[in-house]
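As noted in the main text, all predictions were made from sequence alone. Below is one such record, for ABC transporter ATP-binding protein.
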Amino acid sequence: MSFLSIDKAGKRYGAMVALDGVSLEVASGSRTAIVGPSGSGKTTLLRLIAGFEGPDTGRIALNGTILADGPAIVPAHRRGIGFVTQDGALFPHLTIADNIGFGLERGTTNREDRIRALMRTVDLDPRLLERRPHQLSGGQQQRVALARALARQPKLMLLDEPFSALDTGLREATRKAVAALLQAAGVTTILVTHDQTEALSFADQVAVLREGRLVQAGAPHDLYRRPRDRETALFLGEAILLKGQAGVGWVDCVLGRLAAGTHGQRGDIELMLRPEQVKFTPSADETAQGCFASVVDVEFGGALRAVTVELADGNRLRISGTGLDLPPTGTRVRLSVAGPAHVFEA
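Prediction:
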């Protein structure tokens, strides 16, 4: 049985449909990321799980206990769910110790020891306990917010864009640290984010919302390599989309004949490759078999680079790779494809 079960949850705000029959299962101890464009219903779904609002329709159950059955809901403070927001929502006038202690009852046995233990859990020096939030870095503040949420020993942790205000390097380090802490504590976690890379690297399961509906949910690798449709493919990362002809286990396209699962489709199809699947080698011998192209643009990004090539028919492909192989503009290259192409189901 799933730890968290959402069954056909629906929510309207006047004439606007925020969620339209969303169903999702979350396993105990797992990490799920909910992604989607602005207005897709991500935060609304998180608020329904937290109990800040009730669904108009559908059910939400946690560990077998019904939290919401339509508008009839268990109040947020009785759900045993932790919540960390984008800015951490720390009390600026309280010390770090008092911020963390806010999640503990005043009469809690060994309360001060518990606060210090929580600081160590989130890898912060207990000497920071007497400081105020403004005296800490953004990453430290988010860890304090996490410690406060963990103080109540939640069954489920909800993270609403908690890293978005941090600088890139700090964001990645904080995300990895938080993921490790929650995994070590065995806390089931749901992250809402607009950052696809963050979702794919953080979660065991990724759920994609669009216009209030759940489009696809599954393991990050599966969604990245086998998205349900072109919109999901482009949302989860750069994609090369090509027209082709499908046969049994293969497709013909401008890059030649490629292996592909065609789902029984024949004739005209649309296929997807991720840019890193397309490889190139400089080649002046175009009498050999293969697909040839000219390098028309090179973008150097340090460890990574992007090379744009133009095919004989005028098609241009943007290919990802490491920053070690940078062919000059105008170089003729032979293209090859690693792994199967993905064909969208009709």
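DSSP finds eight helices and 21 strands in the chain. The chain has two domains: 4-232, 238-343. These features were considered when defining construct boundaries for the mutagenesis experiments described in Section 2.9.
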